[in-house]
Design a protein that fits this description.
Helix content is 38%, strand content 22%. It is of the alpha+beta class. The longest helix is centred in the last third of the chain and has 23 residues, at 127-149.
Length: 194
């Protein structure tokens, strides 16, 4: 960043090779290889979100850094932020509750700042990506079970963003359908044979 004359919020960092720590006296160690690129044109959403997240991380006094992932495979138009660091677990919380709250807070602040409705992704140490992958696996195994038994299956209660992943995964399945039932924190998905 010094060579580029840029600060952290103006660049993207891609880890090409993480390197490794050596044993005794540093023998066998390898330096990390990274690619640092200046952001071409930072959108107002990206700039405002970066400032807001960094401000909250500072107020929370957590040892974390914010990265902007370029080329989000799900939707390239939605900014994709990744938080990493020693205290990352504190930002995830029990079953991702703290991360969901942090995401809602950031989104509300940025929406108010920009006076618009924006979408953005915030993940901590890849937790959300792993959770969504696990939910797709759950949906797949549940659909197989429903098809085998011919009986409906009700999943454990989950928040709206997680239910959405399961509904989207099952929407094109010709053998099963899914619907949400219940209220508030007790809302569940029911998977039934077609």
């Amino acid at each position: 960043m010094i060579e580029l004359g840029a600060n952290r919020s103006e660049v993207t960092i891609k880890i090409i090779k993480p390197g490794k720590e050596g044993g005794m006296l540093g023998l066998g160690s390898e330096p990390a290889t990274v690619e640092v690129s200046i952001l071409e044109s930072e959108s107002e959403v990206t700039k405002s979100t970066t400032e807001t997240i960094n401000k909250l991380l500072s107020l929370l006094q957590v040892s974390c850094v914010l990265n902007l992932n370029i080329g989000n495979e799900d939707n390239a138009e939605i900014p994709d932020f990744e938080i990493e660091g020693e205290d990352a677990g504190l930002l995830i919380g029990r079953k991702g509750e703290t991360l969901r709250s942090f995401h809602l807070l950031i989104k509300a602040i940025v929406n108010q700042k920009l006076d618009s409705h924006i979408n953005l992704n915030i993940d901590v140490e890849g937790y959300q990506k792993r959770r969504y992958s696990s939910l797709r696996n759950l949906a797949s195994h549940s659909a197989i079970q429903v098809i085998k038994t011919g009986r409906p299956l009700i999943l454990e209660p989950m928040p709206p963003n997680e239910r959405r992943i399961i509904h989207l995964y099952l929407q094109d399945n010709p053998d099963v359908s899914s619907e949400s039932n219940g209220y508030g924190n007790d809302r569940q998905i029911k998977i039934t044979p077609k």
